[in-house]
Design brief:
The complex is a heterodimer of chains A (232) and B (683). Chain A is an alpha/beta fold and 232 residues long. Chain A has seven helices and nine strands; from the N terminus they run βαβααβαβαβββαββα. Chain A has two domains: 118 residues, Response regulator (Rossmann fold, 3-Layer(aba) Sandwich); 63 residues, no CATH class. In chain A, the strands form three sheets. Chain A has a four-stranded parallel beta sheet, sandwiched between helices. The two termini of chain A are 38 Å apart. The relative contact order of chain A is 0.12. Helices cover 35% and strands 18% of the residues of chain B. In chain B, the strands form eight sheets. Chain B has a five-stranded parallel beta sheet with strand order 3-2-1-4-17. A five-stranded parallel beta sheet of chain B has the order 6-13-7-8-9. In chain B, helix 8 links the parallel strand 1 and strand 2. In chain B, helix 2 packs antiparallel against helix 3, helix 8 crosses helix 16 and helix 12 crosses helix 13. The chains are: A alpha/beta (232), B alpha/beta (683). At the A-B interface, helix 1 and helix 3 of A face helix 24 and helix 25 of B.
């Protein structure tokens, strides 16, 4: 899932300070699961902001909403409609950056502020702890590294590790961070494929990552079909 | 939200299907009057059942698998004992709104319950009772040490107050019979005459002086007229009537009372707890013996000859005792009292078209009809021996059948079905539920009990009732996940202290397993979990209600919202939270059935609504009903504090205390400490 973390409250308060009527919109998928922006977090944030404004004697109307996913037009349409109907002046999105972008595109004249910092693609390694596991680089090499990603999980993203900073299975940046290459070696030993590592992984084409500009995936078969047009 | 699963076991077991969970919950909320309303709605004989009900609800209570059942009968008794004034005030004469009148023959629990229902629906109900007192066996035969007359009178007076006309000393039969009742204009007649006559035995010597029948004996005793018994009394029978007879004999001063039962100890039909109490009171029980003959001297009883009973039931399970005539024994006795069963006095049907086969009315169990149109029958006269609460059930059914008949001219079929029942709690879940000993008031010592006919059992004190009510597992009133909102995040699965929540695609909390602790709802990031009891919006609604009632709350400084554990109070003084209290003390109390269900939003909400401080008071340390709940709540309190810190209000405005000893002892001190701190902070 995409993992995020709510921004500091005062920063968020600063975003919306000048608007009288603000809608906080949660996202019912990744942001919910990582406790950053689900319906409960919307309520907590709404409450905290109302208390903060109340304390300053400022009249602010803070409204709350949550949609299934802020990255789908059908779900976002509900938000845009509400914003228009209720004359909402600003939106605070608790979705990942995707949701913020998407809602912002749809809400042409109403500002959309990010409520969370989008951190990474990660997994729940234990309840309450999420760790990055994928960098979304667009050209997966996990088949070469025992299913453990050096791009996301090695601090240097090196493809032929470990480096000299690996010690007792930990990365030199912090004793809390596992050395991805130590994990890869351990795993490949178990798989009996350690010898594969004797072959150098070639330098990569990073154009599939952010170096090639914004990326796009198209499924032609899913594109809208115009009503009345005869099928092939 | 309606139950979507099987009925709770206690409720399913109750013949009148009293929702025990509901009245127990009302007790915990200090709403004793509402609990009474609820009880009387299901059962007009609630005072009686609080004393003598055989409480099948407790026998099926799912808590039995954890430690011991909840004392539901005693809780019912607590309600009726603590609402007497209210009960008098609520009485209301109901002017009949229907022209049709119904005659009821017999004023036992079946007949009076039917009369109660009919009167409530606007029918004139006239009850004919051949004895001088109403109440049937409850009034004339149940010993007073089990059921004081004043207790029965509470129920009967309630019924009479509706306008039910009970004519005592009025035997329907040869003179004025069913035909005459019809001629008198009754649109329907209900026969509910019960089993009022004792059976006797066909053994030699049975007609001797000193041989008594159980029911006439109990009537004499219950009437306070005493009975002259010799030094040694033998009671024949193994059922509850025999037990009553034996215990009465002890109270009449008989030193040597022996109860002879055909059945083995295990097979005895009397309730086990009554058998034990009887033995404590010095009654000797001889099992597996049948009476062979009464031996006499000059026509007066001298003893009883017994023969060994080798089996009570035959291979088909029918009552058909077999004996070993070679294994005999004798008991000396000055009196023998026969308590082997009862039969119905059917004098009332003489001259009518109502038919009876042997001593049972011909009767259709689903429509409650007899062979004569418009004449219905219910209770023990048609069902055979049963418990008081079963007679109440039959009375309700009869009233329903009669009302339908009078409304439509048609018969109503009421199949006798048992609702699907939850069944036992699985062992895995039971093991995770904290044990908590039941509150069982001790009976008076046996030697004191047999001195007179005083009631042997005392009721719960308020503190005891509240402690016992807390033990209810509130089966099937737990969490419900909203599939639409659920993100399948597994938080509920990870948090549930009972291992109940599951996530396939979305979360599910099987109602038959959920313990209603509310922890999952408090933590769910999608706010997708609703609670059937004390819903997730309830905290805010309560505060809004209290604040609305306070009026000028700006004048109250500091204003504290205190979330308090409902289960820590020992009287209802603190359970009820009124705006006037909040205005006077500056503390708006919200009583929560376990404060561990407070979410972070709940903890913040009071500040939004204008409170200066939130004081959470949970149970005594380590005493929470729910495993892990205390730690979970503490973590949420820390989070709420950090939010207040972030916005500059200060986390110190949230206090979390743990009850010390009891609410009454410690809570005011906590509020005072919090107030002082706030004043130091500048309000």
């Amino acid at each position: 899932m995409i993992v995020g973390e709510r921004k500091p409250l005062l920063e968020l308060k600063g975003f919306i300070e000048d608007y009288r009527k603000v809608l906080i919109v949660g996202c019912g998928t990744c942001a919910t699961v990582c406790f950053a922006g689900g319906e409960s977090e919307v309520k907590v944030l709404g409450s905290a902001l109302r208390i903060a404004f109340l304390r300053e004697g400022k009249e602010r109307e803070i409204l709350e909403d949550c949609v299934t996913r802020q990255c789908e037009p059908e779900f976002v349409d509900k938000v845009t409609q509400r914003v228009a109907d209720e004359k909402i002046e600003a939106v605070l999105s608790l979705a990942c950056g995707v949701g913020v972008n998407f809602v912002a595109e749809k809400l042409e004249e109403v500002p959309v502020f990010p409520g969370i910092n989008t951190k990474f693609f990660g997994a729940t390694v234990e309840p309450g702890v999420w760790v990055e596991m994928c960098a979304g680089c667009g050209n997966c090499i996990l088949h070469l590294t025992g299913g453990i990603c050096p791009v996301a999980r090695c601090s240097k993203s090196i493809l032929n590790g470990p480096c000299g900073g690996s010690s007792d299975g930990k990365c030199e940046i912090s004793p809390d961070v596992d050395c991805a290459w130590a994990l890869i070696i351990k795993r490949m030993k178990k798989l009996g494929t350690l010898d594969h590592l004797s072959k150098m992984i070639e330098p990569r084409d990073w154009s599939t990552s952010l170096h090639g500009g914004p990326r796009r995936v198209v499924h032609e078969e899913l594109k809208p079909v115009q009503a009345g047009r005869e099928q092939d | 939200m309606e139950d979507q699963v099987a009925t709770a076991s206690c409720m399913a077991a109750c013949p009148v299907q009293t929702d025990t969970r509901r009245y127990v919950e009302l007790i915990t909320q200090g709403k004793y009057e509402e609990a009474l309303e609820f009880l009387l709605d299901a059962n007009p004989f609630s005072s009686v059942c609080g004393r003598i009900c055989h409480h099948p609800c407790e026998q099926q209570c799912r808590r039995s698998k954890v430690d011991a059942p909840v004392g539901l009968r005693m809780l019912k008794r607590f309600v009726v004992e603590n609402t007497r004034e209210y009960r008098l005030l609520r009485r209301k004469w109901i002017e009949p709104s229907r022209e049709e009148k119904v005659a009821i023959i017999g004023s036992g629990p079946a007949g009076l319950t039917a009369a109660y229902d009919l009167a409530k629906l606007g029918f004139g109900a006239v009850v004919y009772e051949k004895n001088d007192l109403p109440g049937g066996m409850l009034g004339t035969a149940i010993p007073r040490y089990r059921l004081p007359w004043a207790v029965l009178k509470e129920d009967i007076d309630d019924i009479l107050s509706l306008g039910v006309d009970v004519r005592t000393g009025y035997e329907i039969g040869a003179g004025i019979g069913i035909n005459e009742l019809r001629e008198a204009g009754y649109a329907a007649i209900l026969i509910a005459t019960g089993l009022s006559e004792s059976r006797t035995l066909g053994i030699p010597g049975i007609d001797s002086e000193g041989v008594l029948l159980a029911i006439p004996f109990l009537r004499t005793v219950a009437g306070g007229r005493g009975a002259s018994l010799g030094e040694r009394v033998v009671v024949i029978g193994g059922g509850n009537v025999a037990i009553d007879v034996a215990r009465c004999a002890r109270r009449l001063g008989v030193e040597k009372v022996t109860l002879v039962s055909l059945e083995s100890w295990e097979e005895m039909p009397a309730w086990k707890w009554e058998i034990e109490e009887t033995v404590q009171e010095g009654v000797e029980i001889q099992n597996s013996w049948g009476p062979r003959s009464v031996f006499t001297e000059d026509g007066v009883v001298r003893g009883l000859e017994l023969k060994r009973c080798t089996a009570v039931f035959d291979e088909a399970g029918r009552f058909n005792p077999s004996f070993d005539e070679g294994d005999v024994s004798t008991l000396l006795a000055d009196n023998i009292i026969i308590a082997i069963g009862q039969w119905s006095d059917l004098t009332c049907i003489e001259g009518s078209a109502v038919k009876a086969a042997r001593d049972r009315l011909e009767y259709e169990p689903e429509t409650l009809t007899t062979t004569e149109e418009g004449v219905f029958a219910c209770g023990e006269v048609v069902t055979g021996p049963g418990a008081a609460v079963e007679a109440v059930r039959d009375g309700h059914r009869a009233a329903k059948a009669i009302v339908h008949y009078l409304d439509t001219g048609e018969l109503l079929s009421q199949p006798v079905t048992k609702p699907p029942c939850l069944g036992d709690i699985p062992l895995d879940t039971a093991k995770k539920i904290k044990q908590r000993a039941p509150v069982i008031p001790e009976l008076a010592p046996a030697d004191a009990r047999v001195r007179d006919f005083s009631e042997i059992e005392r009721g719960f004190t308020e503190a005891e009732a509240l402690a016992e009510a807390k033990r209810c597992l509130a089966c099937t009133t737990g969490a419900l996940a909203d599939e639409e909102k659920c993100a399948g995040c597994l938080t509920c699965v990870r948090i549930c202290p009972f291992g109940v929540a599951t996530v396939e695609e979305t979360a599910a909390m099987p109602q038959e397993l959920c313990q209603a602790c509310g922890l999952c709802a408090a933590e769910c990031p999608a706010a997708a979990i609703a609670l059937k009891r004390f819903g997730t919006n309830r905290m805010r609604e309560e505060i809004e209600g209290l604040f609305a009632g306070i009026g000028m709350r700006e004048d109250i400084h500091p204003l504290i919202v205190s979330y308090c554990c409902l289960f820590e109070v020992t009287s209802r003084k603190l359970v009820r939270s009124e705006p006037s209290d909040a205005a006077r003390t500056g503390v708006a109390r919200v009583m929560v059935p376990c404060v561990a269900r407070l979410s972070v939003v709940d903890i913040l909400a009071p500040f939004e609504l204008g409170a200066d401080c939130v004081v959470i008071i949970s149970c005594t340390e380590g005493d929470c009903l729910y495993p892990t709940a205390e730690e979970r709540l503490s973590a949420r309190v820390r989070r709420a504090k950090s939010i207040l810190d972030e916005i500059g209000l200060g986390g110190e405005r949230i206090d979390h205390w743990r009850t010390e000893r009891s609410a009454e002892v410690s809570w005011s001190a906590f509020w005072e400490l919090s107030k002082r701190k706030l004043r130091a902070l500048g309000g």
